[in-house]
Write a structure and sequence with these properties.
The protein has twelve helices and twelve strands. It is an alpha/beta fold and about 350 residues long. Bound molecules: NADP nicotinamide-adenine-dinucleotide phosphate.
Amino acid sequence: MTNTVLVSGGSGYIAGFLIRQLVAEGWMVHTTVRSLAKEAAVRALLAVDNSRVKFFAADLNADAGWAEAMAGCSHVAHVASPLPMGVPKDANELIVPARDGALRALRAAKAAGIKRFVMTSSVAAISYGRGRGVHHFTEADWTDLSKPGLTPYIQSKTVAERAARDWMAAEGGDLEYCSICPSVVLGPVWSRDYSASISVVKKLLDGSLRACPDIGFGVVDVRDLADLHVRALTAPNMAGERFIASGRFIKLREAADLLRDALGPEAHKVTTRNVPDWLVRVAAHFNPVAKAVVGELGSVRNQDASHAKAVLNWATRPVEQSIVDTARCLIDLGIVKP
Ligand code: NAP
């Protein structure tokens, strides 16, 4: 029998790769978008058999549409959540849709008799509020929301996953819930409407990042992440599971050098300079982007994905490949002009 899965946020970067893989593996897919005006453009990008994907209008901030989107589905991948390019002044702009949207999707899933609900959380919910140093994180860790300086996005992902798990414990019944916590998602890009995570490579390539602060990030490839979602949708006994989805941690400096080495003249705008920590601290007083990274200076956040590898037999490609493939697509699509 063909299974039908709802993927929320079908216009998004990760959801696009996930929908493609699900269709390729024989699933019927329902997907939500905020407005059906986006349907034609998303279908064109997905480029899959149109009869395998059905679109529904549903917003994380409203109840309308979620029940219809889930009718006839057995599984849900709840991927939608706001991931803006900038930092909003009011954290609730992200926290409210992330948390309430997850709870809306969970309530609708239970009412529709969904078997399994896989939520795309983030390492933002795992590894922040720890201060400077070399850290090793597993699924047992949670971001400490009591610490100052957490960005609205970090708060939104932590609050949303906590709220989802609390709701499951109190009201989940037979619904099976698990979460996937990716680090920075890179890899091929299909369109100019790319995810905020891609902008780190774009800013290096187009030279708008004029010097590298001493920060870094774990990287996961969007293709591997889609694959992990499919594994979590289909493996037995996933109730309560949590999976870090990350390759190794890479410093921005190393990523910049990698781009210069791999792309040669096409990466001539990639900076060779570093910015000292004191300058980032000064800039943090008036620049929201510097403020968002000041707590990261000098830190190494190793995200341990061995649980996903052991339980779901998951494999990742090297982070170097994901970074170079991101850059290649940005150049090929004309988003960055070398
Ligand atoms: P994306 O391309 O920006 O996708 C976000 C999706 O969420 C879009 O489809 C967006 O719809 C939808 N969305 C936002 N606000 C909404 C609302 N109020 N109602 C309904 N839909 C809404 O980002 P992505 O990288 O694919 O991220 C997808 C998920 O992965 C998110 O949960 C994100 O937190 C998580 N994640 C991403 C990364 C990363 O590095 N990219 C890392 C860890 C976790 P519109 O197109 O209408 O805006």
